[in-house]
Amino acid sequence: MVVAAHGWPGWPLFALIIGCMVLARTAAMSFNRIVDWEIDRRNPRTAKRQGLVKKGDAIFFCALSALLFVVLTFLINQLCFWLAPGALILIFFYSLTKRCTHFAQFFLGLALAISPLGAWIAVTGTLTWAPLVLAMGVMCWVAGFDIIYATQDMEIDQREGLYSMVVWLGAPRALQLAGYLHLLLVFALLLFGWMSNAHLAYYLCLMPLPLVLFYEHRIAKTLQLEAINRAFFQTNVVVGFLFLIATCAGLYDL
Q: Fewer Cβ within 10 Å of end Cβ, the chain: N or C?
């Protein structure tokens, strides 16, 4: 959004983009809870979720969020509005992929990769190569850290007959693949900066990124629940903020 607008896009558009992000995520997460309701009940790690919300409420929030998402895209521009149903189908479809393909983690990456594309289209009404490169980086990033997260459910997935890269490759090889994907993330972010004519500050702010990713994979190799949660939740927050700071610094040459 910031790069496409060459700065601040204005509060109205910013609010609409953030609103779309929150609504799309709420709809997708609600749909995931609905279709995995019985599986989550049998999984000790997720069984506690069942008492937090009723299934009927999840269906209501999913439908309401999806409807409001489409409404907000209509207020942004025509292209966003016409693409909105496709975006919803994609983010909903991810929740079904673990039942039919080992590439479920890549479908999750694709579902989140459309975020920078949506933000770019919201600002410009068009699409260019730079956001596509960023989307590819996001897909690699998400698929990589979701592979790490999936290691804790390998036995449950095998018992339930579900698919994932971890079930297919085994935990050690799957974690190795996640490392390669995160290496591709670094290259994608560097290429995105070059295509966006970012200043030197962008690259300087990204310098800690490989170290953060290395730390994430080092602690994930232990396959301990606490370490996996720390790798998944904490380090990826740092990655996101590093990219945000780098983008703003590289744009304004701070």
A: C
